[in-house]
Amino acid sequence: MTRNQYDLIIHNGTAVTVNERFDIIEQALIGVQKGTIVTVAKWEAGVALPEAATAIDAGGGIVMPGLVNTHTHLPMTLFRGLADDLPLDVWLNEHMLPAESQFITPENVKWGTQLACLEMLLSGTTTCCGGYFQEDSVAAAVVRAGLRAVLAQGVIDFPAPGVPDPALNVTHAGNYVDQWLEREANITPSIFCHSPYTCSGDTLKAAKNAARERGVLFQIHVAETEAERSACLQEHGATPVQYLDSLEVLDENTLVVHAVWTNAEDIDIMRTRGVKISHNAESNMKLAAGIAPVPDFVAAGLTVGLGTDGCASNNDLDLFTEMDAAAKIHKAVTRDPTVMDATTVLKMATRHGARAIGLGDVTGSLEPGKQADLIVVNADRPHLVPMYAPHSHIVYAMRGADVVTVVVGGKVLIRDRQPVTLDRERILARVGEIAAEIKG
Q1: Average per-residue pLDDT in the chain?
Q2: pLDDT of residue 3
Q3: Could you identify which of 156, 211, 243, 333 might form a hypothetical disulfide with 191, taking C-beta atoms 3.0 to 4.6 angstroms apart as the criterion?
Q4: Distance between CA atoms of 346 and 306, rounded to whole angstroms?
Q5: CA atoms of 349 and 69, how far apart (whole Å)
Q6: What burial letters (b/e) apply to 72-89, b meaning 16+ CB within 10 Å?
Q7: How far from the centroid of its chain's Cα atoms is residue 47's Cα?
């Protein structure tokens, strides 16, 4: 090997690659050039390491793909714990929407998003997907943090922050996408219709057409509650999935979020259309929405990723705890301990999550050609010893606080649990000031 062949190497760790073969490589060496993984191989003890501009010693820990959060609302960190233990309709209509109308300004969104990025990075998430209002400010804050993200402008048939006239909601979303297409390498713009019950059929079709014309992901909350399903049956004579299918908005570039109240016919429609799904186990549990039939989704061959939802309904952005919850809740409800095994759930949080949001060729696994989005987890912790099966520990035992190093596109964003791109103290102080205003 030639001198400085690599810009970055990570060594002295066990690589859980989540590639097609799900290779687990002890004493692995990951070599990175220009932000891209070029080498993932075993490195024999005693052999001199290749020269690199930067070398990271994993310290015997786990090196794995950065986690992919397929659904969140980043600025909602500002509302963490604001209205807990309430039914979803009360939580949304009586607390969240009024708070958003008053406090979701470009300035507040900037700080709420930076807080979300700080939390995600420190807990091992390198890619996120979601949508909200004032999304231009969201995207700018994510660029500053350095994460990879699919970020959507929200569409709703009510006055919303930044879009006081609902008649302009789709136009505003299209303009946002136009401004951010190919603007930043790590940002992929998108369009997010809130739900079938807050957007008319005409709005849903117009938003999907705007997304199709621009070749971007269309996101939507679907069948989150039993009440939503019942209302849709009463109004349209169809389930939410069937109703959306009748509007021709379901296809391979549609991400359906939640899909809790879906049946076999709905699953067949989603499979036929190539729809992707974001499963949000903790949010669904906290809001008592129900338990999505994820084992049935998996059996049908649907692509399913994991999401945390926003901090107002979870109340954190830690995908390690999300993996644990997703694995266990389905075992309990099916009474089958083999359902949602660790390998399946880890793929949802990495490889399959990336595929669900349209970034499957970019991130989600450690293999040559993918972007160097990876994390190092300290395995020298009492709750991680002994370690017989690293992939099982990742799902059932690891925590976000165990992450020590985070790299996105070959750039180190967390080093020894310290943020490189974000000012932790300033973010916490400013959000504290905003929270004092919200509390009143």
Answers
A1: 96
A2: 59
A3: 211
A4: 9
A5: 7
A6: bbbbbbbbbebeeebebe
A7: 39
How many angstroms separate the most distant Cα atoms in the chain? 70
Token pair, residue 225, equals 């509650």
Does an H or E element contain 63, and which?
strand 62-65
CATH 2.30.40.10 positions along the chain are: 6-65+370-419
Angle 254-323-333 (CA atoms, 0-180°, nearest 5)? 90
Helix (H, G, I), strand (E, B) or coil at 183: coil
Assign domain 6-65+370-419 to its CATH superfamily: Urease, subunit C, domain 1 (2.30.40.10)
Taking the C-alpha atoms of residue 242 and residue 343, their distance in angstroms, rounded to an integer, is 31
Rounded to whole angstroms, the Cα distance separating 262 from 73 reads: 23
What is the rounded CA–CA span in Å between residue 175 and residue 153? 9
Alpha-carbon distances of 339 from 35, 297, 308, 434, rounded to whole Å: 36, 12, 21, 43
DSSP string, 193-239: E--TTTS-HHHHHHHHHHHHHHT--EEEEES-SHHHHHHHHHHHSS-
Classify domain 67-356 at the CATH class level: alpha beta
Instruction: Specify the residue for token string 């019950």.
Output: 197
Structure tokens at 137: 């400010």
Q: Is this model's pTM higher than 0.85 or not?
A: yes
pLDDT tens-digit map of 141-182: 999 999 999 999 999 999 999 999 999 999 999 999 999 999
How many CB atoms sit inside 10 A of residue 328's CB?
17
Q: How many residues does the chain have?
A: 440
Task: Specify the 3-state DSSP secondary structure of 350.
Answer: coil
